[in-house]
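> forwarded from #structure-qc
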């Protein structure tokens, strides 16, 4: 019996263990957890933000490729000229938008349109209207006076190139949309040099 009492914890030991259980976390432990969460957030949040912006860049570039392709098909199918040019956001939804000819080659576009041009070089209709370009995306290129596709779908300019990139990003990170004089349009991914898409064969 004496040995049994020696094995069982005393009342003072039980009280000490209970107080340890009731004590909970020290201040240092939640601080360590917060520090770990902060480090993880500092790595994940910028990557997520970059992903969101790059997705917007892809949307704008793909819309431009589809729009130029549609303009080319219309020019070939109906035998008229089509002019592709940047416009201001205010002009975008006008019945007959006017090209934003005040832009320089490096200034960002707000939107763009493809316009039907008759034989007298008068705008008669809008073939394609873009969405208003996201403020997170920069679109610029050597088409500030507009580029025309003739009734055969050929461009009046060789090497019409539009850069689509995240705002304030380096040109090396830009997706390039290139309209060849033949009328073929390609989208080149950043630094890859590979054509991601192209128009139907001539």
């Amino acid at each position: 019996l004496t040995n049994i009492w020696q094995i069982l914890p005393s009342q003072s030991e039980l009280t000490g263990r209970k107080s340890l259980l009731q004590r909970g976390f020290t201040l240092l432990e939640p601080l360590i957890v917060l520090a770990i969460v902060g480090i993880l957030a500092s790595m994940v949040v910028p990557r997520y933000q970059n992903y969101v912006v790059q997705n917007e860049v892809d949307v704008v570039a793909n819309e431009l490729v589809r729009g130029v392709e549609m303009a080319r098909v219309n020019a070939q199918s109906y035998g008229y000229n089509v002019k592709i040019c940047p416009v201001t956001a205010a002009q975008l939804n006008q019945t007959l938008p006017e090209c934003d000819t005040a832009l320089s080659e490096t200034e960002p576009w707000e939107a763009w349109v493809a316009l039907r041009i008759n034989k007298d070089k008068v705008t008669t209709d809008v073939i394609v209207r873009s969405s208003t370009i996201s403020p997170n995306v920069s679109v610029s290129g050597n088409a500030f006076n507009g580029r025309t596709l003739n009734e055969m779908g050929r461009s009046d300019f060789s090497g019409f190139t539009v850069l689509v990139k995240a705002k304030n990003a380096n040109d090396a990170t830009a997706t390039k949309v290139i309209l060849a004089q033949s009328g073929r349009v390609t989208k080149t991914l950043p630094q890859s040099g590979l054509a991601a898409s192209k128009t139907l064969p001539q």
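QC bot note: The helical segments are 2-7, 11-23, 28-78, 89-92. The CA atoms of residues 64 and 130 lie 8 Å apart.
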